[in-house]
Amino acid sequence: MKILFMGTPDFAVPSLKALIENDYEVVGVVTQTDRPKGRGHILQAPPVKEYAKRHNIPVLQPERLSKEPEMINKIAQLNPDLIVTCAFGQILPQSLLDIPKYGTINVHGSLLPKYRGAAPIQWAIINGDKKTGITTMFTELGLDTGDILLKDEVNIDLDMTAGELHDIMSELGAKTLIKTIKALEDGTLKRTKQDESQATYAQKIDKKTGIIDWSQPSLAIHNRIRGTNPWPGAQSTMCGKRFKICCSQMAEIPESLYEKINNPDIMPGTILELVSCNMWVKTGDGALLIREIQAESCKRMTPQQYACGHELKPGMILGECEKE
Asked: What is the mean pLDDT of residues 201-216?
């Protein structure tokens, strides 16, 4: 079977790797254009392109497929039997979907119809879900609306970050993809319509997503911290300086803090105590243990390490970042 692979970021690389290792003929790879990265704005190739080049697979990089009929013609000339998409980053036009005789299969990072859209992994954690998974589906013109093929689930641990879940899901996506294609080949693949009444959307993550509201419950703040790790990072301010909260823990609150927690004059965001390497911060329903922070232009460190060179003491108030 001749397969055209369409994907862009690290998440998609294991799926491309799995196709190659399972001896499928990958006739080409379509990925996003090279983009400037870092302070030097040096052009950097997408991870999928780099992997494809190492395996001598032809690469196409359209700016916008729906506006480039000549690119559609190039893809048609590759004559793929199947198109596989995984985090490609563009809506596919019907003229492309009409090319492969077996259709187009997408690898999506949620249990559809929940979390259609750009950031299903992050929102599953931010919303406190205890499980998520991979769905393979036939692609149609709508946003992640096609018929479901296979699903595989993943449990989300209480301290798992979006980065950690991303890596688990990318490997699982590759395995689910291969199972899907093998079922397609042997005629056992079944398709199920999505229940539109259960559909939810995972909007794109940006820097504002990481802003902490300390008046929220501790668990909601903890989920936002890990759901925006590594990017964009959970953000707050202290004495007018912006910094990130990198790691927190839903630990048992010491009895010594009960009086402060129940004192209405002490507002959420107040540092209650520095203990060992950590600090307790008041929240909307109690207190949250903060284990690691990162000030601007500094490396990640414990609150205790930060306090060695900066003012950090009980009574100081962490405030919401100014919205950019």
From this structure: 97
